[in-house]
Amino acid sequence: MDDAWRTTAVGLVLARPPRLLGAEPFFMEFIAGIEERLAEHGRSVLLHVVAHHAAEVDAYRRWARHRLVDAVVLVNPSVDDSRPAVLRQLGLPVVVAGEPTPDTPAVRRDDVGSMRAALAHLIELGHRRIARISGPDTLLHTRTRTAAMLAVAADAGVDAVVVEGDYSEESGAGLTARLLAGPEPPTAIIYDNDLMAVAGLHAAKESGRRIPGDVSLIAWDDSSLCRLASPALTTMSLDVHTFGASVGESVLRLINGEAVSERWCATETVVVRETTAAPG
């Protein structure tokens, strides 16, 4: 990178409804991890929240035009994602947090291993009808988790169903109610984030279900929302702060012109609390 371009900022655009960003703890902890690592070198995150990817690309073009950032952290890579190509065209170095794209350094989560661990916990308890309320299917990590879930379920002879949510409280509650109202409701439900899980927990209780006697629940991404829920939610736990710090480290190496190898987070672990048990 031309020294004339040097700033102290690393850009992060979140194409996400602001109401979700305020309610969901994951990204705040993730950003804190990036910031902690960058601050050691006098750098910080320039955060911009937009409604969709088109506005995100506009932000990248503006940043490049005015030379506001030295690099970009790209989150939630998606199917047919145009953003990496745009960033290359603009000359903005990029680190992907999640599934890698060609010729782009990435810090990856073990979504396959984590999904296997979640299902192993439920199958060992005796569950044979397991549902999952996922994030948007356009996201690569959603598809990776879905493929892993269906493969494990097929091998174990378990009935598995995936319904698509959008990470919001409304989708968690509504889809949980719909699943439990079916002719053969699941005995366990996995949620792709904590906000949907907490909302699903409330919806299940409102339907008269005993938790975990009638239905077991697992949340993805441990947070205070899960620990303070009643009953406290079993979760797939990732050290999100460390995930962010790893992304920050890769960004620093990229800015300094060093080789940046692919990094992996540790496989998420099942933290058993009060919402999983053998089916009643």
Chart the SSEs and their pairings:
Layout: E1 9-15, H1 18-23, H2 26-39, E2 44-50, H3 53-66, E3 71-75, H4 83-90, E4 94-97, E5 106-108, H5 111-125, E6 129-134, H6 140-156, E7 159-164, H7 169-180, E8 188-191, H8 194-206, E9 216-220, H9 224-228, E10 234-237, H10 240-255, E11 263-264, E12 269-271
Helix pairs in contact: 2-10, 3-4, 5-6, 7-8
Element order: H for helix, E for strand: EHHEHEHEEHEHEHEHEHEHEE
- Which second-level CATH architecture of the largest domain applies? 3-Layer(aba) Sandwich
User: What is the CATH class designation of the largest domain?
Assistant: Alpha Beta
Task: Give the averaged pLDDT, no decimals.
Answer: 93
Helix content: 40-55%
Question: Can you summarize this structure?
Answer:
The chain has helices spanning 18-23, 26-39, 53-66, 83-90, 111-125, 140-156, 169-180, 194-206, 224-228, 240-255; strands spanning 9-15, 44-50, 71-75, 94-97, 106-108, 129-134, 159-164, 188-191, 216-220, 234-237, 263-264, 269-271. With 280 residues, it is an alpha/beta fold.
